[in-house]
Write a structure and sequence with these properties.
CATH architecture of the domain at 159-457 in chain B: Alpha-Beta Barrel
CATH superfamily of the domain at 159-457 in chain B: Aldolase class I
Largest sheet of chain A: 8 strands, parallel
Bound molecules: iron/sulfur cluster
Distance between the termini of chain B: 48 Å
Oligomer: heterodimer
Shape of chain A: globular
Strand content of chain A: 5-15%
Number of helices of chain A: 16
CATH topology of the domain at 5-9 and 174-515 in chain A: TIM Barrel
Structural class of chain B: alpha/beta
CATH class of the domain at 5-9 and 174-515 in chain A: Alpha Beta
């Protein structure tokens, strides 16, 4: 089967001769939820049940628990390790099958897992990590009885303090299949093809080098299933990525690693990465240990030498230079859309307008608290503003300039959940880019060791062949598909409550938001 | 181009096991003794390292050092009998300001001289108090100086201490203004006097050696000059003697050979300066002003006096105003002083040194942005020596970090490494901001974002009045 370009009749004629010469058949991936159980033997649970020595093995607990938490295999004199991760915790007390109360010897005790204290952080709480795992496992949001507080983190500001003001009942009743959460990416009306994605997000750039091959491919396959995109990141276009060309964004970053005309011509979107939210003002870092043979080959660099990308593009000193860059890409690939990825300094609104006037289709803001493979701690915390501010600033300015509907505003940098996505859109974005959540779906626990030595001990942000074995392609793809499905359902449910047919109706609706730290008594017009 | 400032560093291993954040609790009883025990698979090889350490253990504080908290062993153990916890000893370190995380990163920087780097994005709070309520800005358009970080282009961190004339006048094409003396430093950082209870006499010669090695200066009480070791005379240009209110003047010899001296502020400040200048007019005099309830206004008043060259503002160890019930923070007090001098048009005439509450390299950068020319530190240098801020020494108990036993090689190496790491981080931030000179970083609040302002600008307009402070 041929790529979508071929379906867009008439394009072949206007393309430069070399475009698509290397087109390969594109793979289809079904959008199908299937269970993808955790890959570790002992799942981390919110609650644990301790069994006292006075347990007589009567088996009552096994009988009553509808979730199968307790495991007593016939012929064994001891209980096997319980499946604590399916235990719903204290909310079970209200039911008639609460093992703790039912045990005739009162041998069971339930406590909150003390290990949670050692897990996660302010932005990604243990509940949020576990809930994301659950979504990746089942394709559904965890049922409320688990008591996960996963819609917000504990950072104490921004998204974590914003809430939606839902109407008591929807103004109009809509069926789920009437609600569309897709967005279009080309609003310029410049003769280039329209690209519509089915969900208001795509996957962020993670280079081969920062994450393993399998992780990149899993992301790409999930992108195909949801008719959205993933991005190569800075580090080249893997041969194995080619069957997904139509859903890949080629990134041109300041180091220009692995960028060739051929990799630009393959795709429907090319992204210029000026800056990255986690380390604004600094280029990419890939520390020596992660520059393996394969990475060095793809980046055309030397094995075991740290790679520091410059900042900014040394050929860009002004918006005019930026425009020249874009013209170059637009010439090399006549059908591509351009995305410009910048971070969020104080003058980000000017930068956004400048990029628009230079010809970009997508302005991609990456906020100061964004994810990364490796960055100096001082930069992660201290440089540029959090994305919540950046969205409002840019959205307002684009509106004032009368060009809000001519450009697609995509934002990233610390968006973790479908609720964050909805809030970002209500603040003024068209869509978002996600990254860390996908890694969490694959079992990332946010220990932040991605940069050190061989890389991620959990086989995700690593190029070490042995470590990377932990993630298998089928499983990885399924986990991300499941996560995306859960998110999609969550967003549709949210729009349904507002009686909105399309996610575009939510854009800029700050009147539907409230901030817990404010009086919320401002009259806003919509 | 001037010779490039560079600090020689070398890895200096810790003397004690690090108090790590995580520890594994191991319920041995049920262990199946698997042939392929997950402990062998720890990517960081923590178990083997710990066993080796335990073999020659002379006191009990093991099992809790450098586990990285990846949960791999916990989740893979055949019997599920490993549990990961936060080390209670880790949580107990420090105080509310010098948090365990600050202490640990200081140890690591003192060990390696490297900039702390990690993955997985930012993990902390959205905002906070003190230095955590601001961000530095960068620019996509103004050309930043990333190249400076890797040495292809020069970012200068040097600063001058002293009074600068407002105008230069010329007569017959010749400079007619008398130029006041200036002390130049390669980096905007000097070593402050340690709080009284944390003064260790055997550290004095090491601190001096660090000042010499890093080309900076140390402030030390004149009464303590005897502790500085035999080399003191050779290194007077790295020493700033501090004179308390009643301390007699050092000998004319010393005054003549020094570059900078500091005096306590009191009602005889002006007279003292005149006495010193009478002996050596080339000696720059700094006035140490405690930031108590009068500190800010007093500093502004002093700056208006043309005899004053340098003001050293000092908050308490945690950056708070001294003796106030609702203390202001050093960065806000500095900003107040700085802005009011700017408004009076005299900011560039005096130098401001600030100390207290500067616990991380980012604080140094932010304090300078808020208006200090130079910062002075003490406690971070003690932390570099594996101090855990337990305050035992202050209360007269034994030091768990055995500070009294450190060797010069270790002490000088670790403290030098820390200053080098801070210097590199300053360059990192300046590079991102597109600022090539530390002198220009000073007071550059236009390249910073303050939480209160931006919240108001963005969310205030949408959601009304902020009710949580
Ligand atoms: S090293 Fe830790 S934070 Fe980084 S990807 Fe792996 S599990 Fe996640
Ligand atoms: S994997 Fe667990 S049960 Fe097996 S030997 Fe190791 S600690 Fe014991
Ligand atoms: S949690 Fe990770 S780093 Fe810590 S001991 Fe286990 S495997 Fe090693
Ligand atoms: S006793 Fe030792 S470790 Fe504790 S504060 Fe004093 S110097 Fe630091």
């Amino acid at each position: 089967m041929e790529g979508s370009l071929a379906k867009e009749s008439g394009f072949r004629e206007i393309l430069p001769e070399n475009t698509m010469r290397t087109l390969v058949p594109q793979v289809e991936v079904p959008r199908e939820v299937k269970p993808a159980p955790p890959r570790y033997r002992n799942e981390i649970a919110k609650y644990i049940i301790r069994r006292g020595s006075n347990c007589t093995l009567c088996g009552k607990c096994v009988q009553v628990c509808p979730y199968g938490v307790h495991v007593l295999k016939t012929g064994y004199k001891l209980f096997a390790a319980p499946h604590l991760n399916v235990c719903v915790g204290p909310s079970c007390r209200k039911t008639d099958h609460y093992c703790i109360d039912i045990c005739p010897k009162k041998a069971l005790k339930m406590v909150e897992n003390p290990m949670l204290k050692a897990m996660g952080d302010y932005r990604w709480t243990p509940d949020m990590i576990m809930a994301t795992w659950k979504m990746a496992e089942t394709g559904e949001s965890p049922s409320p009885e688990y008591g996960y507080e996963y819609e917000t983190g504990a950072s104490g500001g921004g998204f974590d303090r914003l809430r939606f003001k839902f109407p008591e009942k929807p103004p109009i009743e809509l069926r789920e299949d009437e609600i569309d959460i897709g967005i279009v990416l080309n609003r310029r009306d410049d003769g280039r093809p329209q690209v519509k994605i089915d969900v208001p997000w795509y996957g962020g750039g993670m280079s081969f080098g920062s994450v393993s091959n399998v992780v990149q491919l899993s992301k790409a396959r999930a992108a195909v299933a949801f008719n959205t995109f993933t991005c190569t990141g800075e580090g080249g276009y893997m041969e194995r990525m080619k069957p997904y060309d139509d859903h890949v964004i080629t990134q041109i970053a300041t180091g220009l690693f692995g960028v060739r005309e051929e990799t630009i011509q393959r795709v429907r979107i090319v992204e210029f990465k000026y800056a990255q939210g986690a380390k604004p003002g600094l280029g990419g870092h890939l520390l020596a240990d992660k520059v393996t043979h394969a990475v060095a080959k793809m980046r055309e660099t030397v094995l075991g030498i740290s790679l520091f990308s410059p900042f900014p593009f040394h050929s860009v000193y002004s918006i005019e230079d930026h425009q020249k860059h874009m013209d170059w890409i637009k010439h090399v690939n006549r059908r591509t859309l351009i995305s410009t990825k910048v971070s969020t300094p104080n003058d980000v609104d000017m930068v956004a307008v400048g990029s628009y006037s230079a010809g970009t289709h997508i302005v991609h803001l990456d906020g100061g608290y964004g994810g990364t493979g490796a960055a100096p701690d001082i930069a992660k915390k201290n440089i540029a503003m959090p994305i919540e501010y950046g969205i409002v600033k840019v959205h307002r300015f684009l509106e004032q300039e009368g060009i809000r509907d001519k450009v697609t505003l995509i934002v990233s940098g610390g968006l973790r959940t479908p609720h964050d996505i909805a809030k970002a859109i209500a603040l003024g974005a068209d869509g978002v880019v996600v990254g860390t959540s996908e890694l969490v779906a694959l079992g990332c626990i946010r220990c932040s060791r991605c940069e050190s030595g061989r890389g991620c001990p959990r086989g995700i942000a690593t190029t070490d062949a042995e470590l990377a074995q932990g993630v298998d392609l089928e499983w990885g793809t399924q986990r991300i598909i499941n996560l995306y499905s859960a998110w999609r359902k969550e967003l549709i449910a949210l729009l349904k409550r507002f009686g909105m047919r399309s996610i575009n109706e939510l854009r800029g609706r700050t009147d539907l938001l409230m901030h817990l730290d404010y009086t919320n008594d401002v009259e806003t017009d919509t | 181009m001037p010779k490039k400032y560079h600090i020689e560093t070398k890895k200096v291993a810790p003397r004690l096991p690090k108090i790590g954040k995580f520890g594994i609790v191991d319920w041995h009883e049920d262990c199946a003794r698997c042939h392929n025990c997950v402990k062998k698979a720890c990517v960081y090889d923590r178990y083997r390292q710990e066993m080796e350490y335990i073999k020659d253990l002379d006191e009990f504080n093991a099992m809790f050092f450098e586990c990285m908290g990846c949960f791999s062993c916990v989740q893979k153990c055949t019997k599920g009998l490993l549990a990961l916890t936060v080390n209670p000893e880790y949580e107990r370190m420090g105080n509310g300001y010098f948090t365990p995380d600050i202490i640990l990163t200081t140890w690591n920087q003192a060990e390696t001289a490297g900039i702390p780097v990690s993955g997985a994005g930012y993990r902390g709070k959205f905002t906070g108090t003190g230095f955590d309520s601001m961000w530095t800005d960068m620019s996509e358009i103004v050309r930043p100086t990333r190249d400076g970080i890797h040495g292809r282009e020069y970012i200068s961190t040097s600063v001058d201490i002293g009074r600068k004339p407002k105008l230069l006048s010329f007569e017959d094409n010749r400079l007619a203004t008398a130029l006041p003396p200036l002390v130049d430093l390669p980096a905007p950082i000097i070593i402050d006097i340690f709080p009284e209870k944390y003064q260790f006499s055997h550290l004095m010669p090491m601190l001096l050696a660090v000042a010499v090695k890093t080309g900076t200066m140390m402030i030390v009480g004149w009464e303590q000059n005897g502790l500085l070791g035999a080399d003191k005379e050779k290194h007077l240009s790295n020493i700033i003697f501090y004179l308390g209110k009643d301390t007699p003047l050092p000998t004319p010899e010393i005054l003549k050979k020094s570059r900078l001296i500091e005096i306590a502020d009191n009602n005889k400040t002006e007279q003292r300066i005149k006495e010193i200048k009478a002996v050596n007019p080339e000696l720059v005099v700094a006035v140490r002003v405690e930031l108590d309830s009068h500190g800010k206004e007093r500093s502004i008043e002093l700056a208006r006096n043309p005899i004053i060259e340098v003001i050293h503002i000092v908050s308490d160890m945690n950056g708070n105003q001294i003796g106030a019930e609702k203390p202001e923070f050093i960065k806000d007090m500095t900003r107040h002083i700085h802005t009011s001098l700017v408004k009076s048009g005299i900011r560039d005439e005096v130098t401001i040194i600030a100390s207290g509450g500067i616990a991380l390299a980012e604080h140094m950068a932010k304090e300078i942005i808020c208006g200090a020319d130079v910062i002075a530190i003490n406690m971070p240098l003690l932390l570099a020596l594996e101090c855990r801020f337990c305050a035992n020494c202050r209360d007269g108990f034994a030091c768990p970090a055995k500070i009294e036993n450190i060797t010069a090689q270790y002490g000088i190496g670790r403290m030098t490494n820390l200053i080098a790491a801070w210097h590199d981080q300053l360059i990192e931030v300046m590079g991102a901001m597109g600022i090539r000179e530390a002198r220009r970083l000073r007071g550059e609040t236009g390249r910073a974002l303050f939480f209160d302002d931006i919240e108001e600008e963005i969310f205030g307009r949408l959601f009304g009045k902020r009710i949580r402070v």
